[in-house]
Design goal:
InterPro entries: CoA-bd, NAD(P)-bd_dom_sf. By secondary structure, this protein is of the alpha/beta class. The protein contains 5 helices and 7 strands, in the order αβαββββαβαβα. The chain is globular, with a radius of gyration of 16 Å.
Length: about 160
C-alpha cells in the first residue's frame, strides 16, 4: 500500500488512460493458470475484452488459458509495451532489470505493490510507472465496464439491481 507521505507522484487518471491507449502488447509477469489467482482473472478479462496482445511470463508454467507461457521477458516473441507485474515485492528488482533490458515502455505494478525505489529507478531508465493499480480495473474504468464486483453488467445505472 502507498505510504501516507510519498516522494513519487503517480500518473493521473488522464495519464493512465493515455498509457492504456498507447499500449498494444502486455506481458503479464507472474501469470498463473490457477483461476483463483488475480492474474488469471485479469488475463481472462484482457483476452476477452481488451484489444491487447497478451503474453504470459512464468518459468513454472507452459500454458495458461490455452496460450503459451514464456520463462522470462527476454523469451517473448516481441517487445511488450507494458509489463504487468504479479510478483512478490522481493522480486521487483529482478523484474525491473528484465523490463529495462527488454525495452518495455511501462512498468505496471498490480494492487498491493508499491516501491518508490523501484519507481525512481524505472523512471530514471525512461519507463512510465504505475503502482498499486489493477490493469483490469483501470481498463474497465475507462471503457464503461466497471461494476462493484469488478465485471461488466451490461447495465448503465447508478442504482443497484434488486435481487
Amino acid at each position: 500500500m502507498p505510504p501516507t507521505t510519498t516522494a513519487w507522484s503517480p500518473p493521473s487518471a488522464r495519464d493512465r488512460l493515455g498509457i492504456l491507449r498507447r499500449t498494444r502488447t502486455v506481458a503479464m509477469v507472474g501469470a498463473s493458470a490457477n483461476p483463483a489467482r488475480a492474474s488469471n482473472f485479469v488475463a481472462t478479462y484482457l483476452l476477452s475484452t481488451a484489444a491487447y496482445e497478451v503474453w504470459f511470463v512464468n518459468p513454472g508454467a507452459t500454458e495458461i488459458l490455452g496460450r503459451p507461457v514464456y520463462p522470462s521477458l527476454d523469451a517473448l516473441p516481441g517487445v511488450p509495451d507494458l509489463v504487468d507485474v504479479f510478483r512478490k515485492p522481493a522480486d521487483l528488482p529482478q523484474v525491473l532489470e528484465e523490463t529495462i533490458a527488454v525495452g518495455a515502455s511501462t512498468l505496471w505494478l498490480q494492487l498491493g505493490l508499491w516501491d518508490e525505489d523501484i519507481a525512481a529507478r524505472a523512471e530514471q531508465a525512461g519507463l512510465t510507472v504505475v503502482m498499486d493499480r489493477c490493469l483490469k480495473i483501470e481498463h474497465a474504468r475507462f471503457h464503461g465496464g466497471l461494476h462493484l464486483a469488478g465485471f461488466d453488467t451490461g447495465v448503465i445505472s447508478s442504482r443497484r439491481r434488486r435481487t
